Amino acid sequence: MKFRLKLFSLFLILIMLISGCAIQKEAAPVLKLDEVDARSFYSIDAELNVEEKTLTAVQEVDYYNNDNIEMKELYFHVYPNAFKRKETAPFLFDDFDTAYKRGFEPGYGEILSVSNRDRSGEKLLKHSLSGEGDTILKVELDSPIKPYERTNLQIKFMLKIPPAGERFGYGENNFNLGNWYPIAAVYDEKDGWNLDKYFAIGDPFYSDAADYKVSIKTPESYTIAASGQLKEENKENGKIQRTYEGKALRDFAFVANNKFVVLEEDVEGIKVMSYYYEGDNIRGEEALEIGVQSIKLFNKLYGKYPYPVYSVVQTEFPSGMEYPALVYISDKYYKPNYSSDPLIITIVHETAHQWFYGIVGNDQIDEAWLDEGFAAYSETIFAERTYGKKTGEDYYKRTVENSVKEAMSSRSIDGGVLKTLSEFKDWSDYGPTAYDRGAQIHNELRKMLGDDTFLKIVRTYVEKYKFRIATTDDFIKVCEEVSGKDLTEFFKPWIVGGE
Ligand SMILES: [Zn+2]
């Protein structure tokens, strides 16, 4: 996600962006979607009721056990339940009134049934909700899943969508469906099952990449921006059912809106799309150009974006939010009273997340700096490559450096980035740590090792962990392998703090 925007007057020369003069084309290594580990497969059949603000769905999960343990039960996150009570509803930047400008109403997910099919037919499975706000679904399996084997589940559920300008919520014309379906929790060596609550700070999500087929039925007047590629459309009785597919996606989100205008441009085989509200065409066109420029630049620097589509979506949201192949961008940044800068910075940041969070996953609860540091530093890299070295340096100084200095002198942070979300007091503590201190690590590494080695590290990290999950230790190992240096002493103050 994009944390805060302090400087709206840095990217002055928009014309350069529109004419696209700064970026040279170069062949990038191609990531292949099929050349990776086996994955789970989600097939979801959903219908959105725009009057009732509900969604009903049947979700089939072909679950793949990618760990060397026998699983007797499975866990899923039911994030919509966090929106059930005013006290636990996650809204960004501690700003309740902006998130719920129409007043609070509960949103939630109701699990109607969980079943499993075997030779003897369909069997209902015991299941229960637990965790803060009932956001964890536990499913008891009839027979355990052996390591590297599969099982199938069918989960029927319904959602009540809250009136919130949030990841999950509806606004005047939009329905934001982020973190909306039961998504399998991650089992890892360090924590076992990761059953964290929906923290109010950060992007508190952690998931394995999976394959998706998602059908969404809405009234015909609604346009949809989704994480997958549109494969089929069927119209019947004033409704339209669209089917999307996507491989190796970390999650699947969509936004439905009956006032969307859609633009698209093909970039190196990737369809980049801009979805914006009728009337906001100036910024809507700019959003497409920034999406195109960012994809081109990061293709070249980090390795090619592996998915066929990328959508930049204007919606009711406080800033920007990354989902695989789709990003939410605050509708206010499209309005004429804002300069272009928040729009540019936010799109660049969320596009960088496609690589760091999306392609390479990480535990965003325990190691948020790992994706936010890269996304934040990518803003500087974009500024530098697009508008020149001086603009990049100024941007870095005025955002990253100043923010860290301020936060460290007021002792709101100790400098160590490796903290779990529960260790942060609030955004004033989390922001400068995960984003800015994270970006500083990359800047210092780059200064020490040089541009070529730094970029080789980033590319190697992406290539090695694409569609998988990386940890801070994995990143440090890549840094050491590529540079040929022991970096233990370098990383110590950045990771544990107390510099
Ligand atoms: Zn971010």
Describe the structure.
- The two termini are 27 Å apart.
- Strands 5-4-8-2-1-14-17-16 form an eight-stranded mixed beta sheet, with no helix packed on it. The protein has a five-stranded mixed beta sheet with strand order 19-20-21-23-22, with helices on one face.
- With 499 residues, it is α+β, with helices and mostly antiparallel strands.
- It has ten helices and 23 strands.
- A hairpin with a 3-residue loop joins strand 12 (187-188) and strand 13 (192-193).
- The protein is globular and about 65 Å long.
- 29% of the residues lie in helices and 30% in strands.
- Zinc ion binds next to helix 4 and helix 5.
- Residues 1-2, 349, 353, 372, 375 line the site of zinc ion.
> Could you tell me the number of beta strands?
23
Helical content, roughly? 25-40%
Dominant shape: globular
Structural class of the helix and strand makeup? alpha+beta
Proportion in β-strands: 25-35%
Q: Radius of gyration from the CA trace? A: 22 Å
Low-confidence stretches: 7-31
Distance linking N and C termini? 27 Å
Please give the order of strands in the largest beta sheet.
5-4-8-2-1-14-17-16
Largest sheet: 8 strands, mixed
